[in-house]
Every structure is written in C-alpha cells, then in structure tokens.
C-alpha cells in the first residue's frame, strides 16, 4: 500500500510516500513538517528510506527519521550526508511488496533516481516529471535541460502505456494514463 504523508502539509516540502509490505519504506522524507508522527500514525517501524535526490525539500527530515526509526537511507550518491548506501543505476530494490528498478535520471539534479516496478505498474518519479506533463526545474545548480530530456526519454522507453500509477515529488499522483504525462513532459521540455 502506498500512502502520501505530506498531501495536506502547507509548508515547503516534497511529497513523502510510505510504502508498506514485505519492506516498509519511505520514498523521500520531506522537510519542514513532523514526518515522524505521520509515519507512526501508520507503522511502528521502517526498514528503509529511499531518496530520489538530495535537494533540501526532499531530505531535510532525514536526521529525524534516522533517529526515530534507527533506519538507514539509500540513494544514488553516498558522498551526500543524507545517503548511507549507494543504489547503482539499474539496481533492483524492494519497496513494499515489489521489486523496483532504480533509474539514474539526472537533469534536475545529478543524483536523481526514479524507481519503477513493472509488476506493480508503479513509477516513483521524484522531480523528473509531474502531473499534466510538467517537468523538473533545470535552472538550479546541477540542472541541465538536455540531460533532463535524455532522462525523460529513458523513463518513457522503460515504462509502458499500461503504467497504472506515477507518484511525483510534488503535486498530485497520477493514476489515469500516467504514460501520457511522461510523453507530454518530454515534448514540453524540448520547447523553448
């Protein structure tokens, strides 16, 4: 089960997804709100924390989550203080009951990952792509539009048209034809 823990938070934060099952995990931890109490509303323990990328709005709650649940974090770049263990491009990780392929998708930030499960038909897109074909900013440090376009293309080629759910770093999750949003983002990113 995938639960959005930050959907009603008014502070500047990323979305935070609690995924329960064989491996109870958070995908991103957010910032500027008490994520620990929101996790405890659903579960007593966490097995893992997955980081899509290390922009502050996605990782500022890492210390609180580590302390409260004695849990370690996984992300692309272990040189970042918020990442305890590296996930390589193409590596398989378990989130909830399903295996997800980690896709290195830079362009918004160099250490950006998306997580895709073909069996569950779910994509955790981080800040690469959002609802309605929006895409991650490229005007921040490490942002690069051509690289982002390559990452959008890679995700579009990896997923298929039957994708059921896309959970994004900001805004609403997409549960109706999310493939179309990924395709639209690729076209929109090419426009100047």
From TrEMBL:
Provide this UniProt record's keywords sorted from A to Z: Hydrolase, Metal-binding, Zinc
MF terms (GO), sorted A to Z: hydrolase activity; metal ion binding
User: SUPFAM superfamilies, from UniProt?
Assistant: Metallo-hydrolase/oxidoreductase
Would I find Metal-binding among this entry's keywords? yes
Query: What is the name of this protein?
Result: MBL fold metallo-hydrolase
Cofactors that this protein relies on: Zn(2+)
One matching Pfam family is Lactamase_B
Q: Where is the Metallo-beta-lactamase domain?
A: 13-170
